[in-house]
Design a protein that fits this description.
By secondary structure, the protein is an alpha+beta fold. The protein has one domain: L,D-transpeptidase catalytic domain-like (Beta Barrel), CATH 2.40.440.10. It is built from 5 helices and 8 strands, in the order ααβββββαβαβαβ. It has an 8-stranded mixed β-sheet, covered by helices on one side. A hairpin with a 3-residue loop joins strand 4 and strand 5. The longest helix is centred in the first third of the chain and has 20 residues. It is globular. The N terminus is likely disordered.
């Protein structure tokens, strides 16, 4: 009888530990929120601590979503570098980096409304870059690059987002109204996960 009970307990333990590590992608609670309400207003109305805000970017879905714990607060369409499929390994490859990042800084930008600068390259990015050189995937003199962030589009160019035109050198681009809304709620505590 003991063996039978253990067989039922073990899978549940394994399942629960797996869910904990993927909480941002597998919500336990998902409620449609009024899209007319600004993101900041929504966060305030739910009494969410902005330190719990997280960003998930899924390249294959062309979307950026804003989370607090397991609650998805907002989702935005986005585009990427002109090579939207591969992970960034070096400067000039026009790929958007994958991994976990923090916000280095944020500031208004004259060409595309706002710029949220992420900490690419971080230690994980440098390890991927060095492995790519070691394995001959990129030239030995390749530089890793930098200045990657989340930003808007040039004025009157929202259509590039609607048409999924990947136009950046590796950044994530949103419509200006969306980057303006996102800009108001992110801070140096905001974690960003970018996946395929």
């Amino acid at each position: 009888m003991r063996k039978l009970i253990l067989l039922f307990i073990l899978p549940i333990t394994v399942l629960c530990s797996g869910l904990r590590s993927f909480a941002i992608t597998e919500p336990s609670f998902k409620k449609p929120f009024n899209k007319e309400q600004s993101l900041k207003s929504l966060i305030d109305s739910l009494k969410i601590d902005v330190k719990t805000i997280r960003i998930l970017i899924v390249k294959s879905k062309y979307e950026l979503s804003v989370w607090s714990d397991t609650i998805e607060l907002r989702k935005y369409p986005v585009v990427f570098g002109t090579n939207p499929v591969d992970d960034k390994l070096r400067e000039g490859d026009r790929c958007t980096p994958e991994g976990e990042f923090k916000i280095r800084s944020k500031y208004p930008h004259k060409s595309w409304s706002k710029f949220i600068w992420i900490d690419y390259p971080n230690a994980a990015s440098r390890a991927k870059h060095n492995d790519a050189i070691k394995n001959g995937l990129i030239p030995a003199d390749s530089k890793i690059g930098g200045e990657v962030g989340i930003h808007g589009v040039p004025n009157n160019c929202d259509y590039v987002i609607d048409q999924r035109q990947n136009w950046t050198w590796g950044c994530i681009s949103l419509k200006n109204k969306d980057i303006d809304e996102l800009y108001d709620v992110v801070n140096s505590n905001t974690l960003i996960r970018i996946s395929k």
